[in-house]
From TrEMBL:
Its main location: membrane. The keyword Signal applies. SUPFAM superfamilies: TPR-like. It is found in: Cell outer membrane. Residues 247-556 form the RagB/SusD domain. This is Starch-binding protein. It holds the Pfam family SusD-like_3. Residues 60-206 form the SusD-like N-terminal domain. Keywords: Cell outer membrane, Membrane, Signal. Belongs to the SusD family.
Amino acid sequence: MKKTLFLLLLAGTTGCHTLDLNPLSEASTGTFYSNQTELELAVNDLYRLAFWGNDNELFSDNEWHRGQLTNAVIGGTMNADDANVQTFWLNSYKAIARVNSFIANKDRAATNTPAAVMLRLEAEMRLIRAYQYSRLITHFGDVPLLTDPVALEDSYDISRKNQAEILQFVFDELDFAIANLPVSYGASETKRLTKGAALAIKARTALYAGKWEIARDASKAVIDLGVYALHGSYSQLFLKAGETSKEIIISVPRDEKQQVFNGAGYVQDNISRNAGGFGAQLPTRDIMDAYECTDGKPIDESPLYNPQAPFKNRDPRLTATIVEFNTQWLGYNYMPHPDSLTVFSSKENRRVPNKDTRAVAAFASFTGLLWKKGIDQTWPDRLVEDNDAIVIRYAEMLLTYAEAKMELGEIDESVLNAVNQIRARAYGVSVDQTNAYPTITGANAAALRKVLRRERRVEFPREGLRYMDLIRWKLAEKALSTPVIGLPDPAAQNRAKWPFPGVTPLDDDGLGDYSAFGTDVKVLSQRSFDKSRQYLWPIPAVERRVNPNITQNAGY
């Protein structure tokens, strides 16, 4: 086991030009980086999903998996041997090692690579390294700061650097990228990192760190670039039609031939049983109850809400995100009611047994809900997900700007306009059509904070932002210590109370309380979050076995 991680880090600096995570032999470092092509290959190799992405939605109160039941984050069992922890750490430092090798050796190609190209490639690499460190410090706190290739004999003396020092390093690196990356590329290079990408990572990093002025200025700079805009259709943004949208700031291309991310099992987990899926990876009741009504009020305050018709009179993002009952979905009418034993199939043009009710199929959705957001109608036929992976989009910058300004006590028309742009898009209207959607007007800081937190939740489900929002708002200890609830078993279901037995009370943080519903709901799993330790992840045990100088976070 000894030397495992640092050997991988050191060897990883030699394999930048391959599509294989396994490093090449150490000797290749001496001959690589000798021309523009090799420099570009080294950079391009870091445009892979192993090195990009937001947190798993299953780490939050938005999503639950029937088969997995729990995980180390929501189960409170995270430890230093956790596979997710080790993979996160290893991939981050693998990318960092490759960037460090590139920067140390790039001048070999100086005689045959235009200076402008060299500078742009370096800016991309330094952005990627900054992104890795920005994620490491939000999850682990203090971590080793490596900016040069590390010789094996020196690796055992490395220790953790203060998080604040690394944060400043991240901002400095991003400023270099901002200064040296183009605003846009030609049509053939649309997915490369840009000035806007560097600004967006800076804005997100600053927001997570509570550096409000920096978050405000960086997000405003993205807005002022004038190259990004909200996509016309919220639902289409997450399908093939949205992959070239002006809303996308950073995304990682995926294609069916590669199948590098999610294959048949993932697809089947996310689609209905009628369509050949498992109905296993599910929206929670918590996320459904977060969507306000069309009068702009939460469900426990709005007279428009009816728990027996929970999709009616709701923010349109609800039906763009979760499959509405009694609507056609993937070729079948989706109706999980226990008495709906058959449904009409538009795919087969006849009524068929309804495998999406647990009265017919015991393992149909336990919450009664299915994801719609990002799921293509062709998934059941192809059993592969190849939608591009969105990392950051323009809507996040609008809400980042609004939140930072709000926290600075600078609530003005630009703040309200930023939020209202997103709300108007949800309703398919322009921001100035104030009678066509529930606008935000003149909110004080406390009221606006509630609006912004709800807005982030209903705008970004399944995009991996909820976990870090719960962490930075110090809400994880509350949101992730509640039960996951679902529908009662069919025999126990009170038909008069289907699907939901009453109006869910929401607290000041927008979190639902289901304790008063008794047996009209079923506890599927109990979340548990240890606030004494889980706001930071543990340093991987394998890392500390290699180098005891790297200390452990408290509680692990």
